[in-house]
């Protein structure tokens, strides 16, 4: 009797069930983030006061974090490639590097960026712009944290060449988190 | 020993598992994404709103497409995946179109937005003072 999970062995839609599940998750996440970003755009377009508040965000920090996420996405897809080639140890190393990117992103956000802004009086209740800012960036950061935790669970298994399909699955999720940030960055840091 | 054999079998099974992913030059894609990031940051320095709009949001769309195509391999996934994602994006636009006429106003029938009215008033008064 096989102990392999059903996500590995069953395919009812032209792709493994696990990959299908990740795409379903992403589709539902599009609705969540789309709602937040769509609402922000409505408010931003109709209230000039948002621009004066947005002027206080730090573009360089946002750009640095974008670079970190893009680089971590590179490691994630290199991990996928290694998994496809059956090279578990290399896939695990790539997952650890991807996790490191996520950890750096979170450290910059929670260790420097947000404390600085809060210290200057820009709290979640100081203006509707900051309500959107902390909500959108906070929900995104929660997704980054979830991705890091999942990768740190998967990597030791990948190192032993077990369940290598999971390297690809977490990679697809991670790229989506990257895509969300690609839109958050200009909305919150550049459109001033 | 048995675990090692299982790991070897699993790795081989995954490697031979009919993967339709074509792995391109990912470092080149990453380098292009980095250049686009630099352009999007540099855009506002020209001081023209249209340039900022194109360099910020036009490039964001291009970057997102590149990540979806080259890193997520959405173009080699079954067609219904693109339809699934496209449907959710369409619902996002439907949400925007359906709610914007109300959300983008400060007042309506039996409702108003006090915090935004206050914020807009403060903004107007700051600009009025700055103009004088």
Structural features, described:
The complex is a heterodimer of chains A (192) and B (132). Chain A has helices at 6-9, 17-46, 49-54, 59-84, 88-119, 128-159, 165-190. Chain A is an all-alpha fold. Chain A has a single domain (17-190), classed as Four Helix Bundle (Hemerythrin (Met), subunit A) (Up-down Bundle), CATH 1.20.120. Chain B is mainly alpha-helical and 132 residues long. Chain B has a domain at 1-77. Helix content of chain B is 73%, strand content 3%. Chain B has 5 helices and 2 strands, in the order H-H-H-H-E-E-H. In chain B, strands 1-2 form a two-stranded antiparallel sheet. In chain B, a hairpin with a 2-residue loop joins strand 1 (107-108) and strand 2 (111-112). The interface between A and B is large, with 66 and 61 residues.
Instruction: Write down the CATH topology of chain A.
Output: Four Helix Bundle (Hemerythrin (Met), subunit A)
Question: How would a crystallographer describe the biggest sheet of chain B?
Answer: 2 strands, antiparallel
**Which oligomerization state do the chains in this entry correspond to?**
heterodimer
- Could you give me the name of the CATH homologous superfamily of chain A? Cytochrome c oxidase, subunit III, four-helix bundle
Task: Write the topology of this structure.
The complex is a heterodimer of chains A (192) and B (132).
Chain A: H1 6-9, H2 17-46, H3 49-54, H4 59-84, H5 88-119, H6 128-159, H7 165-190
Chain B: H1 2-15, H2 26-42, H3 49-71, H4 79-103, E1 107-108, E2 111-112, H5 114-131
Antiparallel strand pairs in B: 1-2
Helix pairs in contact in B: 2-3
């Amino acid at each position: 009797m096989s102990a392999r999970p059903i996500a590995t062995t069953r395919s009812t839609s032209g792709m493994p069930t696990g990959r299908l599940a990740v795409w379903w998750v992403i589709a539902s996440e599009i609705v969540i983030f789309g709602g937040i970003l769509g609402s922000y755009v409505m408010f931003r377009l109709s209230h000039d006061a948002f621009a004066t508040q947005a002027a206080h965000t730090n573009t360089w920090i946002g750009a640095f974090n974008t670079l970190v996420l893009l680089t971590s996405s590179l490691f994630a897809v290199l991990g996928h490639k290694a998994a496809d080639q059956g090279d578990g140890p290399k896939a695990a190393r790539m997952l650890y590097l991807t996790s490191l990117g996520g950890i750096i992103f979170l450290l910059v956000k929670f260790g420097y960026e947000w404390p600085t802004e809060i210290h200057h009086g820009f709290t979640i209740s100081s203006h509707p712009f900051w309500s959107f800012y902390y909500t959108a960036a906070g929900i995104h950061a929660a997704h980054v944290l979830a991705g890091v935790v999942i990768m740190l669970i998967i990597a030791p298994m990948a190192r032993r060449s077990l369940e290598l399909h999971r390297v690809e699955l977490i990679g697809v999720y991670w790229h989506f988190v990257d895509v969300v940030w690609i839109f958050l960055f200009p909305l919150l840091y550049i459109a001033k | 020993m048995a675990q090692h054999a299982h790991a070897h079998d699993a790795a081989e099974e995954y490697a031979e598992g009919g993967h339709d992913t074509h792995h391109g030059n990912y470092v080149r894609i990453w380098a292009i994404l980095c250049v686009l990031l630099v352009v999007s940051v540099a855009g506002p320095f020209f001081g023209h709103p249209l340039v900022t709009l194109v360099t910020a949001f036009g490039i964001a769309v291009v970057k997102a497409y590149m990540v979806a195509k080259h890193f997520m391999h959405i173009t080699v996934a079954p067609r219904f995946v693109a339809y699934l994602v496209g449907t959710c994006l369409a619902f996002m636009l439907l949400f925007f179109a359906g709610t914007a006429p109300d959300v983008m106003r400060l007042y309506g029938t039996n409702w108003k937005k006090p915090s935004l009215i206050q914020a807009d008033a403060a903004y107007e008064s700051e600009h009025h003072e700055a103009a004088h």
